[in-house]
Each structure stands twice: as C-alpha cells, then as structure tokens.
C-alpha cells in the first residue's frame, strides 16, 4: 500500500505534466514551420466567448491577450533564431465559425514553403545515433545544423565550389556543381565522411 505522501507526489507529477494541455482548452490551430534553424511548432488558442488569444512557439507563450471584444483580427510575432515574422489571421467564416491562417514573412505558409524549397536545401542524417538536420541557404551560402549557424570554409574546385564544415568529429562538405541546364541551375550535394547524403523533402 502506497503512503499518502507518495500518492500526492504522483498526482503532482501528473498535474504538472498535463498542465500545458489543460490550459489549452481553446486550442484552435497548430502549424509546423520548417526554418533554417529547425522545425518550429506554432499553437494558437482563441476563446470565442472571452476573445482570449494565446500564441505559443515551441511550447513557450509568446502572446497572451485575455479579454478582446473584437474576435477577428491578427497577431504578429517572431519565430526562430532569425526572428522570422509570423502573423496569424483570424477571420469570421459564418456565425460563430472562424478561420485561422498563418503567414510567414507576409506570404501564406504554403507559398512561403514553396519559395523556401527553391532557396534552401535540407538534409536529414543520423551520425553515431544522433539525428542532424543540415540546411543550406543558397542565397547566402549559410549552413545551419540543428539550429546552429555553422562555421564554414569555402573553396573553388575544378567543377564548382566546396563548402567545408564539421559536425561533431565528422567532416562535411557541400559541393556546388553546375547542372549544365539553365532550368536546374546549380546542384548542391552534401557529403559526410565521403558518403553522399540524399536530400530531405520537407
């Protein structure tokens, strides 16, 4: 038979584990946004009786407004290391139904992600039991790994360029080679310990 003290401790543990979920009774929308520094989760609470608005980014409260008489409108905040601008639009659809849309840098999430796939390359790999997400920003040639901007060294080689960096004790290189086709442009390949890593689709 467990003592009363043990039971209280267990109840407190359960309560604290679920308090984040308990508070989120008005959760109306969840989005996952892949940025260079990682995939961020945006959650939005909207109390349609109180007008309450709460925005969470990666589980951390960014905005809280309790009594709002206007139930429609927008909330703007930033996401990730680069402080990317995000806006949640709240629109009335009919009666008491609402539609919630997320914009990133002024574009709809879908448009933003389509554009992003043109200007970045992403690779997901496992090294020594650890998962890594490597992102190349093609316009700046910045390389990110698990949310950190990497120190890189670039060099020109016979058929293009190589950007060198290391992850743990693994040597990594992103090769940039012209495809020879105008539409395809430059092909970027990640090589880790002399092994080519296939590109991830996000």
Biggest β-sheet description? 5 strands, antiparallel
The helical percent reads 10-25%
Distance between the termini: 51 Å
CATH-scheme architecture of the largest domain: Beta Barrel
Total domains, how many? 2
Shape field = elongated
Provide the spatial order of strands within the biggest beta sheet.
13-14-15-16-17
Low-confidence stretches: 2-22
Strand residue percentage:
over 45%
Number of strands: 17
Radius of gyration equals 22 Å
> Which fold name fills CATH's third level, the topology of the largest domain?
Lipocalin
Give the helix/strand class: alpha+beta
CATH class of the largest domain: Mainly Beta
Question: How many distinct helices?
Answer: 2
User: How confident overall, as mean pLDDT?
Assistant: 85
Order of helices and strands: HEEEEEEEEHEEEEEEEEE
Query: Quaternary state, please?
Result: single chain
Organism: Oceanodroma tethys (Wedge-rumped storm-petrel)
InterPro entries: FAIM1, FAIM1_dom_sf
Family: Belongs to the FAIM1 family.
Subcellular location: Cytoplasm
Task: Please explain how this structure is put together.
Helix content is 15%, strand content 55%. A five-stranded antiparallel beta sheet has the order 13-14-15-16-17, with no helix packed on it. A four-stranded antiparallel beta sheet has the order 1-2-3-4, with no helix packed on it. The longest helix is centred in the N-terminal third of the chain and has 20 residues, at 4-23. The chain is elongated and about 65 Å long. With 202 residues, it is an alpha+beta fold. The protein folds into two domains: 6-110, Lipocalin (Beta Barrel); 116-197, Lipocalin (Beta Barrel). The model is unreliable at 2-22 (pLDDT under 50). It is built from two helices and 17 strands.
């Amino acid at each position: 038979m467990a003592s009363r003290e043990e039971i209280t401790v267990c109840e407190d543990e359960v309560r604290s584990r679920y308090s984040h979920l308990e508070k989120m009774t008005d959760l109306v929308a969840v989005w996952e946004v892949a940025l260079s520094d990682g995939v961020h989760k945006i959650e939005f609470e909207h109390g349609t009786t109180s007008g309450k608005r709460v925005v969470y980014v990666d589980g951390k409260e960014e905005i809280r407004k309790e009594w709002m008489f206007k139930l429609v409108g927008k909330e703007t905040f930033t996401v990730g290391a680069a402080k990317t601008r995000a806006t949640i639009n709240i629109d009335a659809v009919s009666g008491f139904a609402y539609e919630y849309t997320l914009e990133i840098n002024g574009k709809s999430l879908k448009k933003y992600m389509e554009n992003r796939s043109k200007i970045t390359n992403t690779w997901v790999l496992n090294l020594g039991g650890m998962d890594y997400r490597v992102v190349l920003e093609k316009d700046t040639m910045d390389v990110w790994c698990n949310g950190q901007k990497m120190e890189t060294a670039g060099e020109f080689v016979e058929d293009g360029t190589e950007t060198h960096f290391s992850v743990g004790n693994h040597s990594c290189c992103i090769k940039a080679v012209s495809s020879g086709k105008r539409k395809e442009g430059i092909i970027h390949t990640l090589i880790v310990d002399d092994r080519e890593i296939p590109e991830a689709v996000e």
